[in-house]
Specification:
Order of helices and strands: HH
Distance between the termini: 28 Å
Structural class: mainly alpha
Mean pLDDT: 84
Strand content: under 5%
Low-confidence stretches: none
Number of strands: 0
Number of helices: 2
Largest sheet: none
Helix content: over 70%
Length: 48
């Protein structure tokens, strides 16, 4: 079981990095309305 948890933890870091890159891209493309755009994409919190 601990092996599965270790893999999951490594995947979590990669997913977190990808989501942060996505939110930064949305913010760069929609500088005035990025908060509403993040909501459209399904992000409920702006901090990741």
């Amino acid at each position: 079981m601990s092996g599965v948890v270790g893999i999951s933890s490594a995947n979590y870091k990669e997913i977190e990095k990808t989501l942060k890159a996505l939110t930064n891209t949305i913010e760069a493309n929609y500088p005035d309305t990025f908060k509403s755009e993040l909501r459209k994409w399904g992000f409920h919190e702006e901090k990741l």
